[in-house]
Write a structure and sequence with these properties.
The protein is α/β, with parallel strands linked by helices. About 50% of the residues lie in helices and about 15% in strands. The protein has helices at about 1-20, 40-45, 55-60, 65-80, 100-110, 120-125, 135-145, 165, 170-180, 195-205, 235-245, 270-285, 290-305, 305-335; strands at about 35, 50-55, 85-90, 95, 115, 130-135, 150, 180-185, 205-210, 215-220, 220-225, 230, 255. The strands form two sheets. Strands 1, 2, 3, 4, 5, 6, 7, 8, 9, 12 and 13 form an eleven-stranded mixed sheet that branches. The chain has a two-stranded antiparallel sheet with strand order 10-11. Helix 11 packs across helix 14 (about 305-335) and helix 12 (about 270-285) packs across helix 13. The structure holds pseudouridine-5'-monophosphate (PSU) and manganese (II) ion. Pseudouridine-5'-monophosphate binds near residues 54 and 135. Pseudouridine-5'-monophosphate binds next to helix 3, helix 9 and helix 13.
Length: about 325
């Protein structure tokens, strides 16, 4: 137990190191070469609520200008609910935690010219001074590094359909297996193999909880037909889960799945037929690797005449609302 306690306090010290602006040099970099915005640094040093946000959803997940509008609205929702938003991206090779409006605009304009950056891509983006939009795995990595335990996204990656043959399993899942951050998402899209994704998360030791339901949601729809091992009914329930996870030093992540609000749920059959068509096209065009998810997202949106994008925007905003409340409840618990 002592070893766990000392490991925990070493982690806390490391996180404090990234939280203070004392060690930020003239170049705006700190010891870990991560630039933390003054607002986020101040919130972290005070122990105030902060919500990490990813940026691949801006570059690859939505078209311009909806990507920029949504990113701004999501930040505003986080603020209006008492937390500080920290959108994470790599700009000119510098990992940034907390973006200015100008930086958000720059990323939204770059769109897919920004490199989709998962964990494996981080070192290359920094070394080549590139512009990287972080996926859930890379965003979790930086959030944990600077001591942000709550991260809001739309949907996470998973085991792709036929993943048992292609081995296309998102690094979001292995990241959840080794990084103690709570990810608030609307579950997993049915472009993926949901039952196998849940199996894989179990293998990785990830705590999977659903918000106000026993069913794991399927992003556009409220349920996937799969049951979750753990149910949470309030931001306080989530905060207690996060607190227990951190105090025990489990080192693994938590997936908190929030179903899309009923009034925004897309027609399951409309989405399903679009997904089937998009999957077939991806196979015909031999779209594989990290291009597959953006391809499927864009095609499903086209095939549904924008219905899927509207649902996507609505659920991301709802996740931001719930995530901010969780971050506030968790910050209160620590004071
Ligand atoms: N699912 C969505 N929207 C997204 C993504 C997934 O509904 O924007 C992005 C996230 O950044 C996620 C990444 O981390 O795609 C997963 O990509 P891959 O399947 O290549 O691991
Ligand atoms: Mn993949």
């Amino acid at each position: 137990l002592n070893m766990v306690a000392s490991a925990h306090s070493r982690l806390a010290n490391l996180q404090r190191h990234f939280q203070t602006s004392d060690n930020v040099g003239k170049d705006g970099l700190n010891g870990g070469n991560v630039k933390i915005s003054p607002e986020v640094a101040e919130a972290l040093s005070r122990g105030d609520a902060v919500v990490a946000l990813e940026s691949t959803i801006i570059s690859h997940g939505m078209p311009y200008p909806q990507n920029l509008e949504t990113a701004k609205e999501v930040e505003a929702i986080v603020r209006n609910n008492g937390a500080v938003p920290a959108t994470i991206a790599i700009l000119d090779g510098i990992p940034c935690v907390g973006l200015t409006t100008k930086e958000l605009e720059r990323l939204a304009n770059l769109g897919t010219k920004a490199q989709k950056t998962a964990r494996r891509d981080i070192a290359y983006l920094v070394a080549s001074r590139g512009n990287g939009a972080t996926t859930d795995s890379a965003t979790m990595f930086f959030a944990s590094m600077v001591g942000i335990p709550v991260f809001v996204t739309g949907g996470i990656g998973g085991v792709h359909r036929h993943g048992e043959q292609t081995m296309d399993i998102s690094s979001d899942l292995t990241e959840l297996g080794k990084t103690p951050v709570a990810v608030i998402s609307a579950g997993i899209k049915s472009i993926l193999d949901i039952p196998r994704t849940l199996e894989y998360l179990e293998t990785q030791g990830v705590t999977v909880a659903a918000y106000k339901t026993d069913q794991f949601p399927a992003f556009f729809t409220e349920t996937s037909g799969c049951k979750v091992p753990c149910r949470v009914d309030s931001p306080e329930d989530c905060a207690r889960l996060i607190d227990a996870n951190l105090k025990l030093g489990l080192g693994t992540g938590i997936l908190i799945a929030v179903p899309i609000p009923k009034e925004h749920a897309a027609s399951g059959s409309l989405i399903e037929s679009a997904i089937q068509k998009a999957l077939q096209e991806a196979r015909d065009k031999k779209v594989t690797g990290n291009a597959e998810t953006p391809f499927l997202l864009a095609r499903v949106n086209e095939l549904t005449g924008g219905a899927s994008l509207a649902s996507n925007i609505a659920l991301v905003k709802n996740n931001a609302l719930v995530g901010a409340k969780i971050a506030v409840a968790h910050a209160r618990m620590r004071q």
